[in-house]
Amino acid sequence: MVMIGNALGGNVQLKAHCKSRDDDLGVRVLGPGQEFHFKFWTSMLFTTVFYCSFEWLGSGGLHWYDVYDDNRDF
Prior knowledge:
mainly beta; 4-stranded antiparallel beta sheet; 6 strands
């Protein structure tokens, strides 16, 4: 399971867009202290990667992060 949360402080909203090669979970806008979770099945070939873009006021643009990578997290 992956948990994405907004701990930015202040009254800043966090925009997150998470997806894999096969699944797009859509854009989520999280207010202060909010979070969302998602679960998935990993590939038998150990090729599953979920990545998210994050953006918030003053962030200077999109920031990408691999939130799950079979090669790293299995």
